[in-house]
Amino acid sequence: MSEKAGVADTVGFERLSEYRYRIPRQGKMRCDAVFYASRRILEDLAAEDYASLRQLMGVATLPGIVEPALSMPDIHWGYGFPIGGVAAFDPEEGGVVSPGGVGFDINCGVRLLVSDISREELADRKARLADELFRSVPSGVGRGRKDFRIGRPDLRRLLVEGPSWLVERGYGEPGDLDGIESRGRLAGADPDAVSERAYQRGQPQLGTLGSGNHFLEVQYVDEVYDEEAARAYGLHPGQVTVLIHSGSRGLGHQVCTEYVERFLQVAPKYGIELVDRQLAAAPIDSPEGRAYLGAMSAAANFAFANRQLIAHFTREAFARAGFGGRPLRVLYDLAHNNAKLEEHGARRVLVHRKGATRAFGPGNPELPERYRGVGQPVLVPGDMGRYSFVLAGTEGSMRETFGSSAHGAGRKMSRRRAKKAARGRDLIREMEQVGILVRAAGRATVDEEMSEAYKDAAEVVEVTDGAGIGKKVARLRPQIVVKG
DNA sequence: ATGTGC
């Protein structure tokens, strides 16, 4: 399929460079859109009749957008905004905030822990560790935890303070906070903008994984591409790592649901014309916009705290499995579903990243000193059978994508199709035969999350690296997978 | 993603 077909039929894009394409402003778009893709990714986009690129064009119609509307190489169809979408809005130009531009799982993200344990040491205790982790980190839809209770007044404080509230009470180490994006605390969190129902749903779920694509993986570093960055991050071949992927659970979901509804009601009042109801938005500088941002930031702090507590119980599981006294340091905790006020091109803009990560380049004062020379760690989880990647933010991401990069492999099959493809197979056994132990709350999720249901993360990473919006640092191979 | 449809 050539890009010509795209021009003629529907979307109309042009190639800017090997991996970079532009959709010129057309129809109700207020600015151009730019997307990153390989020829192969382009074929995937064509196969879905450019549905996700059309969503990106919809994003470009929203008021106050700062050009261009962007998507990362892992773009796929999502609620309103495409997953992999990045869009910045200027509050002084009537810019909007959109819950669909953040996602239902507010501040979903990944945290990478690094140990001094070798792959060989892990081999001796792998089954034991898998069992301990599965016991220590509840997973599955609606699951809570019984051994950690937080009262309402404390939860309110946690929504404002994030993981520091936990660290102060012994759930973690003081150094943990240095490795979290924004130190795990988004400013402006408003616990009063979070509904009673959201509190109720979130309260028992702190320290739980959830379901779907969420996971906890024990891995090892099997390849290093950039020695200098790997050294700065403290990564070396054969080393055991832990990758935690989870978000704000029922609390964030409830916040998103309620504000989408509210924004739909008020959009006419602000003269916002929506080409798609799922793009529901309100001005950043409006009572509704401010309330959502307050609630979203609170949910974000809850998600950071959730990963903090999961990391705490992960450390306990490692100790019980015979790795007592061995450190598990936070390399980085990075969100991929949020909206943040940032300075770009001497303007203060609200950057929505929906299935996209922050990827600040070298020298950025936001970064911990030890990473400042090489740029921010960018974590790109792959599917559960293959590999995940660590990249570094670049000058290119700062210049082209409001300091953003890709967040993962992206689905290739629908959940329904994956389930069908898994019929008659025992995926857990297949994984075990290649040395990956799976512990899951249910088999259905494992089927839906099968390796073949995902695009190859390596492809996404090649495009990201090739386009210069992220730099390959290391590859991680799974050994233990805990799923919902 | 999600008390996996109101």
TrEMBL record:
A GO molecular-function descriptor: RNA ligase (GTP) activity
Coiled-coil blocks: none
Positions with a binding annotation for Mn(2+) 1: D105, H214
Cofactor comment text: Binds 2 manganese ions per subunit.
Residues binding Mn(2+) 2: H245, H336
Family designation: Belongs to the RtcB family.
The protein's name: tRNA-splicing ligase RtcB
